[in-house]
Amino acid sequence: MPDRRQYRFEGVEPEIHPDADVSRESTLVGDVTVGADASVWPGVVLRGDIGPVSIGQQSHVGDNAVVHASTIGDRVMVGHGAVINEATVEDGSLVGFNSTVNTGVTVGAGSVVAAGAVIPEQYDIPAESFIRGVPARVTPLSDERLSAEEIFSKYSSGEYGDLVDRHEELFDE
């Protein structure tokens, strides 16, 4: 049986749905829940100590992302190296590579956070927004001709979507 990096914190241990795929090279601490058909890739840290971490159904957390005391909705993609700290990312949103979602932020449903964006503390982003820049600027997705659903479908299905199965050693039981 492979070594798993899952740790109890103050008597609470991570809960992983049997249909979720969590890399043995990720770290889960404390009050962490991973929903059905979600994937958590190598190097990810999910730390539920000062508050719970919830990864919704069919959500994907990419390599080296850090999610601390945050809620990730259903059908969300979190890109490689993203940091989400004490925040909420609502259903159907995308968080780009190396972006930062700071404390108290809510990213509205169906939104796209561009790669490298930094969202300052306490922002409440409306649904279906495009967030980019440092500090982040927010515009409606419709102004940008982007669709979070189209992007999610492209990267969460087909050849990319079956990567978990193709990386059997990263996810073996």
Automatic annotation (TrEMBL):
Sequence intervals crossing the membrane: none
SUPFAM superfamilies in the cross-refs: Trimeric LpxA-like enzymes
Protein name: Gamma carbonic anhydrase family protein
